[in-house]
Amino acid sequence: MSLSIVRTDNASEVLGRVRRLVEQGEVGADGRLPTERELAARFGVGRTVLRSALDALEAEGLIWRKQGKGTFIGQPPDPKGRLAAQISGESDPVGVMEARLCLEPELAALCARRATPEDVDRLRLLSQRTADAPDAEGAELWDGSLHRLIARVAGNSILLTAFALVDEVRSNARWQDERERARSPELKNLYSSQHALIVDAIAAGDENVARAAMRTHLETLSLNLEQSRRDDDDRWGAP
């Protein structure tokens, strides 16, 4: 099955395209992805943007690289995530946040129950990458990787499928535009602190604290998204 290619310089969108390439089985028999040069030409993107997407997938543990050999699939993403394309046009960031608040606190609790020390190390890396991101696009890329890893380590296939649907919707341009408006430098620092609390609770194996920390984080984000919308309405004189 061929992919419909639309040029983009958004690393999160490129990451989604690589995921779909994996889902559709367009890799070598040995699990090797096409070269970075081939992928960049195929997607019509620069090597820098492509490499950022591959870095995020590697940090999630979905791909791995071997010097001189190439990039290989580590473990495939949940293919059911592509079903979200059928509902993304009917969803907005408010609906996305409602769904996340239903799912992700429980995923964080299950992650605290099942995470290995290696999982915790990866979560800390992704949390730090999110905090250190120099721009909104980078922060969104690493933030998404952190939340996806929590969902996968939780180890519940039904909840992971539901999360994959929500995650696919949140990668669209409308969501990212609203997220960027709700991410001031002060809020970025707050979100980073909240991420650290979530990861610390997971590392301690404390399900209740992990659940509460994730809920607080998502409620904070939801409130800031709503405030951003109200500010836009006031700015443009919406009724």
What does this structure look like?
With 239 residues, this protein is mainly α. The chain is built from 10 helices and 2 strands, in the order αααββααααααα. It has helices at 11-23, 36-43, 47-60, 93-114, 117-132, 136-154, 157-170, 173-181, 185-203, 207-236, and strands spanning 63-66, 70-73. The chain has a two-stranded antiparallel ribbon. β1 and β2 (70-73) form a beta hairpin. α3 packs parallel to α6 and α5 runs antiparallel to α6. Residues 1-7 have low confidence and may be disordered.
Q: How helical, in percent, are the residues?
A: 55-70%
The H-and-E topology, N to C, reads as HHHEEHHHHHHH
Query: In total, how many beta strands?
Result: 2
What is the CA-atom radius of gyration, in angstroms?
A: 18 Å
* Lateral strand order in the biggest sheet: 1-2
Largest sheet: 2 strands, antiparallel
Q: Give the amount of beta strand, in percent.
A: under 5%
- CATH second-level architecture of the largest domain: Up-down Bundle
Task: Supply the number of structural domains.
Answer: 2
Our count of helices gives 10
Short summary of the structure?
The chain is mainly alpha-helical and 239 residues long. It has helices spanning 11-23, 36-43, 47-60, 93-114, 117-132, 136-154, 157-170, 173-181, 185-203, 207-236; strands at 63-66, 70-73. The chain has ten helices and two strands, in the order αααββααααααα.
